[in-house]
Design brief:
With 992 residues, the chain is mainly alpha-helical. The chain has helices at 16-25, 32-41, 45-54, 58-67, 71-91, 98-104, 108-117, 121-128, 134-142, 147-155, 160-169, 173-192, 195-211, 219-236, 245-293, 301-316, 327-370, 373-389, 398-438, 442-458, 468-511, 519-536, 541-561, 563-590, 596-612, 618-668, 676-688, 694-738, 746-762, 768-820, 825-840, 846-896, 913-927, 934-950, 956-976, 986-991.
Length: 992
């Protein structure tokens, strides 16, 4: 059984009645934060409203207004927050934080009160800026809000009924005057917008425009605007009944007639001006043409000049009206014609001179090209003299000067080049002689020397002293080479006789073959003898042909004897060729084989056999060898590709196996029993991977096997240790099962059993032969514990089912009470009794308990919040009445002349001190000029008395004080009157 918290405050009591009484009667209540918690979470609506009555902190109220979702309590919180903000804004003395407060104010009518009664003009204007409703703006204009605020409010009012009201009710003369002016302006606007009046005025304007058409200077623009003018008249007077319609049409027709006359005259003048302009343009164009021909070097320039003169005379007589060229144009024509003729004669003379000089220039170029430099020099000098004597003024001769300069430069360069070429050629000949001397070849040296000497003689001469060194060098080289040729010729004669001796010996050797019977030896000896004859070299020409015939006849005679051997040899070669073709065919068959080692061995055997076969004819054998080589290359290329691919696969397998070794070694860093699956998986993956490179396969397998053995050896040790651990868990759970008694906390026992089960799972495996027996020993006591817990749950479920039946009955009774009478006090008491029974009843099944609680709370909240709403509305109405009566008291006290007094200690007071001061200032201002008007004051007091009687009840705690205050002011007023008593209030009349 739990202990009660005796220090717990009453406003946290389980009973809603106790919490409500604590909030409404105790002075030392909860803190603001605790009030916020009550307002948000308390299930009883009355308690929530009582907590709201005590909360007066604006920040917390603003937070609640945003946080709450319950519609009714949210409205009440918002209303209180707005009321406090309104009072704060109306009484604010400094404009420090009013914008934040004004932004938090949501009620439009309260904003209107702030705009009308706030102490500071900044606050009044800022609040007024947030109001768009014209009725509220009218209320502001009637309040003592000041001249600027009144004007601003009137600016937003456009309804005539409100403006009419404000002409008499607006605060201040300025406000009433502005309302009257705005109302008059609306009347004037309405009158000014009358459609018929506007139409008549516009028709008169159109008539005035038509009367001024004939006086315009912009005839074309006016003619363009005339259709639009007529169209507008037609749209304004569609029936044509306007009395001045004919006058309008007459004015328009007169303008059109005058405009046609002006257009006709314009056309005549324009045609004449265009014709004259064209004529003058033609004369000017002819003059420009002749000016363009003057100085022209074209062959057809005289012809074009004659055509231009004919065109002038034809144009001068073409116009029938007598139009012709001006005097200035005629004079200009005569001048340009004479200028053309004079210039043309000079051009022809200069052309002839230029043609002669160009012919001479070509002659000089040809002489330079042929190498006749002296004659070219003389002709060029004559040309330069002629060019200096002439003065070309009409044809361009820049090209002539340029060509003469180029000829002079070309002649100089050609002369210098010719001399340099001679010098270079002689130098080359000397170098060739030196090379011939160094690389002396007896057979060709004599002819080369002859050619070089001829080339030297054909070269031109150089200037004195320019080639003395080269001449000395040339003479010395020629002498030395000639001596070398003479020595060679002498030695060659001796060599020829020596070669003759060798060839005689070779002839005797071939003749000795006539008696040999070994034809194979004879055949090869003949071939070697022929090759030796070629290698010996020449012999004296006198006997050269004779010796060759003797040698050749001897060789041919013995070669004829070798034909049987050659026929036999040809048969062997044919067989070798046939076998080579078979080898090629077999190699081509093997080129696509994938039996790499077997095919390699066979191809190598074929290659060895190929080498041992007899050589055949060169062309045929080479063709077969290329075929055989191609087949072998194709196979070995495929074999190499296969080996490379296999090497790549082995390298990939090497990486995969290294990765498996690393994974196995990584698992060894933190040994766990449940990693046995990982090691078995690694072993399976190892088997699926192909071989690695041969040199690395064995070390890799040793490394992987070592890691696996290490783990499984450790696992065997762990399983032996796990036996003792799991036997200890079996003992613990058996002790738990034996300790179950009727009073035991089975849930706690079950939790301990679950912890033991978790420990069982965390311990690794045991040897397979003990695994099942240990598990059965551990599981049996666990089943006993959880069966006992299940039986306990079944008993609790029966109790919860019974509680469900009770709560469903209470829910039905609450629904019947609420439907019976929502406002009956007796119903409220009965509903509270049902709430008490509900709290005393235990929980229902979990799947139903929450829904039943929500339904019961919703019914109670709906009932009590409905009553609370009525109380809140009544309280708001009484607070408004309190404010109105305080204003009447304040006005009455201002009339009497008494000082402002705060009422009742301030609690529940509707007007703040700032509002009272403001009201007093306004009343003093109004009464300032009426203090001596007794009849006027009597009417004011009478009006106050009537308004007082119309106002309803105020809050009870303020009623006595307010009535006392009102009666005191009345007594003071009528005490000043002679023998007059104040009128009785409605309450006093009923009491008497």
């Amino acid at each position: 059984m739990g202990l009660f918290n005796l220090s717990k405050p009453k406003w946290q009591h389980k009973s809603a009645e106790v919490r409500l009484a604590a909030l409404t009667t105790e002075s030392d209540g909860p803190s603001p934060d605790e009030l916020v918690e009550l307002i948000s979470d308390d299930p009883d609506p009355r308690v929530r409203l009582a907590a709201l009555d005590r909360l007066a902190e604006l920040p917390l109220l603003s937070l609640l207004a945003e946080k709450l979702t319950d519609g009714d309590i949210k409205k009440t919180v918002t209303l209180k927050k707005d009321t406090l903000l309104k009072q704060k804004l109306i009484g604010a003395q400094t404009p420090d934080t009013f914008r934040e407060d004004l932004a938090g104010l949501t009620d439009p009518e309260m904003k209107a009160e702030v705009a009308g009664y706030a102490h500071l003009p900044e606050i009044r204007m800022a609040s007024l800026a947030t109001i768009n409703d014209e009725d509220l703006l009218a209320r502001v204009a009637q309040a003592p809000c000041g001249k600027e605020a009144t004007q601003t409010a009137l600016a937003g009012i456009h309804r005539e009924d409100l403006l009419q009201l404000l002409t008499t009710k607006a605060s201040g003369k300025t406000g009433r005057r502005l309302a009257s002016e705005k109302l008059a302006a609306l009347d004037e606007e309405r009158r000014r917008n009358d459609p018929d009046t506007q139409r008549q005025n516009r028709l008169l304007e159109l008539l005035a425009i038509a009367s001024g058409l004939s006086r315009t200077e912009l005839w074309d623009k006016t003619d363009d605007e005339l259709p639009a003018l007529r169209q507008e008249w037609q749209s304004l007077d569609p029936t044509g009944n306007h009395p001045r319609k004919d006058e309008f049409e007459t004015l328009c027709a007169a303008f059109e007639e005058q405009y046609r006359s002006i257009c006709s005259a314009r056309a005549v003048e324009k045609e004449k001006a265009e014709r004259y302009q064209a004529l003058i343009h033609g004369f000017e164009e002819i003059c420009r043409t002749i000016e363009g021909l003057t100085g022209s070097q074209a062959d057809d320039a005289p012809q074009k000049m004659a055509e231009a003169v004919r065109s002038w005379h034809q144009l001068a007589t073409s116009d029938s009206t007598g139009l012709g060229p001006t005097t200035a144009l005629t004079k200009k024509f005569a001048q340009v014609e004479q200028s053309f003729r004079d210039t043309h004669q000079k051009i022809e003379r200069e052309k002839n001179i230029l043609a002669t000089m160009l012919a001479k220039i070509k002659e000089v170029s040809d002489l330079i090209a042929r190498g006749q430099l002296e004659q070219a020099e003389r002709t060029l000098v004559d040309l330069e003299k002629t060019q200096g004597d002439q003065n070309f003024r009409h044809i361009p001769v820049h090209d002539l000067d340029l060509r003469l300069t180029e000829l002079r430069t070309s002649l100089s360069e050609t002369r210098a080049t010719a001399l340099q070429n001679i010098l270079n050629e002689r130098t080359r000949i000397c170098e060739a002689l030196a090379h011939l001397q160094q690389d002396f070849t007896p057979t060709s040296a004599e002819q080369k020397l002859k050619d070089l000497r001829q080339t030297w003689e054909n070269l031109g001469s150089l200037g004195p002293g320019q080639d003395e060194d080269l001449l000395t060098r040339y003479t010395s080289a020629v002498t030395q080479i000639s001596e070398m040729i003479d020595a060679f010729q002498h030695e060659r004669d001796w060599q020829l006789w020596a070669n003759l001796t060798l060839k005689n010996q070779l002839i005797a050797r071939v003749k000795d073959l006539d008696t040999h019977e070994n034809l194979e030896l004879v055949y090869h000896e003949i071939r070697e003898a022929r090759q030796a004859w070629k290698n010996i070299g020449p012999i004296p020409p006198k006997v050269s042909q004779k010796k060759w015939l003797e040698f050749d006849q001897t060789c041919n005679r013995n070669f004829e004897r070798c034909k049987p051997y050659l026929d036999e040899l040809e048969g062997k070669r044919a067989a070798a060729i046939t076998r080579r073709e078979e080898i090629c065919q077999r190699a081509e068959e093997l080129s696509e084989s994938s039996e790499w080692q077997k095919t390699t061995d066979e191809l190598k055997a074929l290659q060895g056999e190929w080498k041992d076969l007899l050589r055949g004819r060169r062309g045929e054998e080479e063709q077969l060898f290329r075929r055989f080589r191609k087949a072998c290359d194709a196979f070995f290329a495929r074999r190499q590709s296969h080996l490379e691919q296999q090497d790549q696969q082995r390298e990939g397998n090497l990486k995969d196996k290294i990765a498996l070794c690393e994974q196995a070694e990584q698992l060894l860093t933190d040994l766990k029993a449940d990693e046995v699956t990982a090691f078995l998986d690694l072993q399976k993956r190892w088997k699926t991977i192909g071989p690695a490179p041969r040199k690395k396969e064995a070390p890799l397998w040793t490394r992987f096997r070592s890691a696996c053995d290490t783990f499984f050896n450790w696992l065997d040790e762990q399983r032996r240790e796990n036996i003792s651990l799991k036997e200890g868990l079996c003992s613990e759970v058996e002790a738990l099962a034996k300790g179950i008694t009727p009073d035991a906390d089975l849930k706690e026992v079950a939790d301990q059993a679950k912890q033991l089960q978790q420990q069982w799972k965390e311990i690794g495996p045991v040897p397979h032969d003990l695994q099942e027996s240990l598990w059965q020993r551990f599981r049996a006591p666990c089943d006993v514990i959880f069966s006992a817990l299940q039986q306990q749950y079944e008993v609790e479920d029966e109790e919860r089912s019974s509680n469900q039946t009770i709560k469903e009955s209470l829910l039905q009774q609450a629904e019947e009470l609420v439907e019976k009478n929502l406002d009956d006090k007796e119903t409220a008491e009965d509903l509270k009794a049902l709430q008490q029974k509900w709290q005393e009843t235990g929980p229902a099944p979990r799947e139903h308990d929450g829904g039943l609680n929500r339904q019961f709370r919703a019914i109670c909240n709906a009932f009590f919040e409905g009553r609370r709403q009525q109380f809140a509305e009544l309280r708001t109405e009484r607070n408004e009445n309190l404010k109105k009566k305080e204003i009447l008291c304040l006005r009455l006290e201002n009339i009497v002349g008494s000082s402002i007094k705060s009422g009742g200690g301030g609690r529940g007071k509707a007007l703040t001190l700032a509002e009272e001061l403001k009201q007093a200032m306004e009343d003093n201002f109004i009464l300032a000029g009426r203090r001596d008007e007794k009849n006027g004051l009597d009417e004011d007091v009478k009006k106050i008395s009537q308004d007082w009687q119309k106002i309803g009840a105020v809050p009870r705690e303020q009623e006595q004080h307010l009535n006392k205050r009102y009666k005191s002011a009345m007594d003071r007023y009528y005490k000043k009157k002679s023998n007059k008593k104040p009128p009785q209030t409605a309450k006093e009349a009923s009491a008497s």
